[in-house]
Amino acid sequence: MKPETTLQEARDHLHSMWGKEAVSCPCCSQKVVMYKRKLNSGMAKALLLIYKISNGVDFGFIHVQKEFKKIGINAISVEYNKLAHWRLIEERKGDNPSGANRSGFWKLTPLGISFAKGGSSVKETVHVFDAKVRGFSGEEIRITDAIKNRFSYFDLMGFLPLNELPGGTP
Which architecture, in CATH terms, is 38-122+132-157? Predict the structure, then answer.
């Protein structure tokens, strides 16, 4: 970019590239990526487990990792915290003894309860940049659809598997 480029022009350039590929920031050369995450089956299963553990009501906050560990599930591997991007769960803030802003306690939102019961739908894909939701895309899906969405590394990273490249596998 030219030295006279304004910050707004740099932002506009980045916004025009979001979702297409990773780009370099014209101001600092940092890699800039808009991540697109589908609500996948692991997340959907985690939501249903939180619903079951909390008896399907707005019963308060639970420590998801501890509750999942009791039933032999690694909470991190099912990406339960990503459900907050769709506002299906929310975290209790600020009571961590270490002083961190994260508590580990989460609860279902009214939308999360309705979604778990099959009464609501959400957009299939969330767009995240700098840990903030920037938008949504895709079809409106219900919990029964989300359960079928297997996690895809290639979707997350935004490229095709080798066997789907034009011309076949190299």
Answer: Orthogonal Bundle (1.10)
